[in-house]
Amino acid sequence: MTKECRNTQQKPKKEKAKKLGQAAVRIAVLALVLWAVFHRNFRGVLQSLCNVGIRGFFVLAAAGGVYFALDILAFFKLTQQRIHSFSFRQAAQTVGLGILGRVCTCSVGSFPMQGCFLYRCGLVPGESGGLIAIAYVLQKAATLLSAAGMAALNHRYLVQQFPDLIWLFRAGFAVGAVIIAVMLLLCASRRFHALLQKLLGCIPQKGSRAALKKTLQHNADSLYRLSCVLLENKAALLRVFLIQCAKILWLELIPWFCLNLLGEQTPVQTALLYTAFALVLAGACPNVSGLGPTEAAFLLLFSRLAENGAAATALLLFRFSSYFFPFLVSLAFSGPAMKELREEGKIMHEKTLKN
């Protein structure tokens, strides 16, 4: 048996082992999250969920749908600066693929899946990278701005309620600011682009490396050019940023809906404050499939606002509205897109074998 045949047979086994490993990690994280929620008041949480009723879950599903729609709208408006014919349906499919990749592949497959679909829409990989990076920067900036605004409006309350966590909030802001700065440096810095091209120029022009070198240099140029174009169009950028701000504010409002469904009379401004800082803390930590940091930050803060049982139940309702329901909706958009990508992949694979 030749070496190529052995590699062909071993590849499916490696892919299967990789998928099993990712599934094991997701199950472990989900089990840890459920234990953190239920281990103190299992019966109380279940009873509270039953008391919410079908109508309450419909309200939360509608809230999650609005959040998902705002996410699509922001990406749609941003992408139209590069592809004027880009449709809202294509934006929904791209965002849906991002959610599907984040949940099902521990975030590893999110960018490749979105990049492949955007390539079909007319963007080269470098341009896709720049587009997704700028969208992430705007979302991150909106999250930090919202939390800063809440802190300015409720500074005295913040100091009184969280004197032991002020340093943690500052660290969350610092990490978020560093992430934004690094993303902009990688995408739109002229000096970094020149340095990257210089490093890529060191790749030897031999055999397949010559084609790889040309592709990498082209993608690096595309990433830099599109990022600069997006950032230079201030009016369009401001419109997308305002949509991102509306999306984040709506997300911060969902826990208030959850607490009210549980009978907790919490002021809107207080719920917004707690959620804003929970998002800042969650965004500063690595996660697995979008799980872990959000739940920990939510329980850390909201357990001081409501009883442990109510805080845990509100967390489950919040994640249903902002995580699980958008994921289910995204399947309706990402499913057809995934089918088209698989068919194209098979066609390209067959052409490669023929050549």
Give the topology, please.
Blueprint: H1 3-38, H2 42-79, H3 88-104, H4 110-121, H5 125-153, H6 155-161, H7 166-188, H8 190-200, H9 208-232, H10 234-261, H11 268-283, H12 293-302, H13 308-354
Helix pairs in contact: 2-3, 2-10, 2-13, 3-4, 3-13, 4-5, 5-7, 5-9, 5-10, 5-11, 7-11, 8-9, 10-11, 10-13, 11-12, 12-13
Which key features would you list for this structure?
355 residues; 13 helices; mainly alpha
Oligomeric form of this entry?
single chain
| Approximate helicity band | over 70%
Q: How many E strands?
A: 0
Tell me the span between the first and last alpha carbons. 22 Å
Beta-strand fraction estimate: under 5%
Count of helical stretches: 13
Determine Rg (CA atoms, Å). Answer: 23 Å
Helix/sheet category: mainly alpha
Largest beta-sheet characterization: none
Question: What would the average pLDDT be, to the nearest integer?
Answer: 85
Shape assignment: globular
Low-confidence stretches: 1-9
The run of helices and strands is: HHHHHHHHHHHHH
